[in-house]
Write a structure and sequence with these properties.
Elements: E1 5-11, E2 44-48, H1 56-59, E3 63-65, E4 85-89, E5 93-97, E6 102-107, E7 113-117, E8 148-155, E9 161-164, H2 171-178, E10 196-201, E11 207-212, H3 227-234, E12 239-245, H4 254-267, E13 277-282, H5 289-299, E14 305-307, H6 316-329, E15 355-360, E16 363-367, H7 369-376, H8 383-396, H9 398-404, E17 412-415, E18 418-421
Parallel strand pairs: 1-3, 2-4, 9-11, 9-12, 12-13, 13-14, 16-17
Antiparallel strand pairs: 1-8, 2-7, 5-6, 5-8, 10-11, 15-16, 17-18
The structure holds guanosine-5'-triphosphate and magnesium ion.
Length: 424
């Protein structure tokens, strides 16, 4: 089965907790702090693998969680790092964050990887908090809770050339005579229901990949037929072979078909009409083909058109040469959101360490990834830890900012749904 789009939930492992521990030695009544930090949680990683051709495995695997980090140990020993989960996906896989609607990665080469969910950081043990000011800190940090995110994983075929046209015009037959691919061929519409890929070698030794796509019909760009679902696979192609059935058997009119398909390509969001097109008049062996072709040429005198009879392999070499020529001069089209170089790796960047919002009535709310991260790693049980956090706020300049905004003794400070009193 060919599965080319799945949604899954991913979450890195939580960070391990740091611990509080004091060295105990015979004859040394008060040893220094030696509580180790927690290990970082594991990441969820997707890795492009050329042996994979579909996303089928992921379809039955809706939630993927990496392992959490281990707690710190005494003697300054860190907890173990949580194991990563690495999932193999086909080359050509595009990953986006659903909630933020951003592209996370575009895996174009075998072996490329992207972290789709980061593990939480390990909390610091009391040893890590030791300083001149705190020679013997007796508090530690909790491990960071990893954030779950929903991602959409999509396979966009990496073919150089895409075969498009109405159903039954002979696209699969073309692919079967120019490559080793063995697509199903029959005289009913939508014989091809999933794309087929083939590798072409021209007689002058040039090689490229070609994708045979399900037939398009009028309204395909709006979701009619099977075409819509697969139009997006054309997004990666650089050259389009637009195939027409010049025979009279189907009762369709090739001139009209040509216009309908082009309308669909231009209505579709990926600017598919920007790709150079090779127009192919197929089934030239059939009755009426010559007349139809003459009519096409009259309507479009400036368009170069290649005549083929794919069942006899007639005329196909010229089409392949033309495709190879065009590929030499046509650069890759960037994906709609700008990714083209391979792995893009985007997490929303934090601009400032913190932000203070005056809510009025003596209430202020604190925001900021860094600040929240530290806050969430607080060990609430320990007064000392809270004291340390308060000191951090002072060092980061949060206190000063609050005062500048007019915060007074007794005002309410909100962090992450918790309320505190401002003490000046
Ligand atoms: N007479 C004649 N028949 C052809 C030619 N090329 C293909 N056919 C026939 O046309 C029918 C449809 O061919 P396919 O290659 O399956 O067409 P397709 O465009 O892939 O169709 P879909 O997969 O349904 O979109 C088959 O019965 C082929 O044998 C040709 O050059 N001449
Ligand atoms: Mg077909």
């Amino acid at each position: 089965m060919f599965v080319d789009r799945v949604k899954i939930k991913v979450k890195g492992g939580n960070g391990g907790n740091g611990i509080v521990s004091m060295r105990r030695e015979k004859f040394v009544p008060l040893g220094g702090p030696d509580g180790g930090s927690g290990g970082d949680g594991g990441n969820v990683i997707l890795k492009a693998d050329s042996n994979k051709s579909t996303l089928l495995d992921l379809r039955y695997n809706k939630q993927i969680f990496a392992k959490k980090g281990g707690s710190g140990k005494s003697k300054k020993m860190s907890g173990r790092t949580g194991e990563d989960v690495v999932l193999a996906v086909p080359v050509g896989t595009v990953i986006r964050d659903i909630e933020n609607d951003i592209l996370i990665a575009d895996l174009k080469e075998h072996g490329q990887e992207a972290i789709v969910a980061k593990g939480g950081r390990g909390g610091k043990g009391n040893f890590a908090f030791m300083s001149n000011k705190y020679p013997a800190p007796d508090f530690a940090q909790q491990g960071e809770i990893a954030v779950a995110r929903e991602i959409e994983i999509e396979l966009k075929l990496l073919a150089d050339v895409g075969l498009v046209g109405f159903p039954s015009v002979g696209k699969s037959t073309f692919l079967s005579v120019v490559s080793k691919a063995k697509p199903e061929i029959a005289d009913y519409p939508f014989t091809t229901i999933t794309p087929n890929l083939g590798v072409v070698m021209t007689k002058d030794g040039r090689s490229f990949t070609i994708a045979d796509l399900p037939g398009l019909i009028e309204g395909a760009s709006l979701g009619k037929g099977l075409g819509h679902q697969f139009l997006r696979h054309i997004e990666r192609t650089r050259v389009i072979i637009h195939m027409l059935d010049m025979g009279n058997e189907t009762g369709r009119d090739p001139v009209e078909d040509y216009e309908i398909i082009n309308n669909e390509l231009s209505s579709y969001q990926y600017h598919l009409m920007l790709r150079p097109q090779i127009v192919v008049a197929n089934k030239m062996d059939l009755e009426g083909a010559k007349e139809n072709l003459a009519r096409f040429k009259e309507t479009y005198p400036d368009i170069e058109i290649f005549e083929t009879t794919t069942i006899f392999q007639a005329g196909v070499d010229k089409v392949l040469y033309k495709a190879a020529d065009l590929l030499e001069t046509t650069p890759a089209f960037p994906l709609l959101d700008g990714a083209s170089k391979g792995v893009v790796y985007k997490f929303i960047e934090e601009k400032e360490d913190f932000k203070v919002v005056d809510l009025g009535n003596g209430s202020f709310e604190l925001f900021g990834d860094k600040l929240l991260r530290e806050f969430r790693m607080l060990d609430f049980e320990s007064d000392k830890a809270s004291f340390h956090f308060a000191r951090r706020l002072r060092i980061m300049g949060v206190d000063a900012r609050l005062r500048a905004l007019g915060a007074k003794d007794g005002d309410t400070i909100i962090i992450d749904n918790y309320e505190f009193e401002f003490i000046d």
